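Sample pair:
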Amino acid sequence: MIRLALVGDIGSGKSFISNLFNYPVFSADLEVANIYKANKDCFAKIKKAIPNYFSNFPIKKEELIQSILADHNNLKKISKIVHPIVRKKLSIFLKKNKNKKIVVLDIPLYFENKLNKKNDIIIYIEAKNKEILIRLKKRKNFNQSLIRQFKSLQYPLIYKKKNSDFIIKNDYKIKTVKKSIKKILKELH
């Protein structure tokens, strides 16, 4: 099984591009959202670690945002609770898809959580800052200081780019991106 890991800046289009590969995708962001909605044990641990922000199950995005903006250490506390659960979900995903030729890993903290394996193919998604900002501002809960906090958990983009096997320049046009994907897949065969 070939593991393709997509890395890049917040808002660079990793999730959008991951689905264009037409292979099974593990989306860490989607898993986290599901954990917040469905995992009562996770809720209990977060409420215990940060008692003043969470009213009742399921975890609400607004409460998460308020807790993170109030104290940057809260993001680290939440991550310590959520990341092990995401790892388990990743493990289940990989077992379920072990006979697939390729799987795509859309994990924003791929390097930071030391998920990279020796034979993983790392693809850096590059986009212009101006384009990224336009897209981020369209998100429902856009908050500049929240994004800065998330970025503070991440390795510098230069590190991610330098440690990648391929670069996809995301101009947010499907035709161009699909051409890049086709080229990468051809090189892998």
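The chain has two domains: 1-24+102-189, 29-96.
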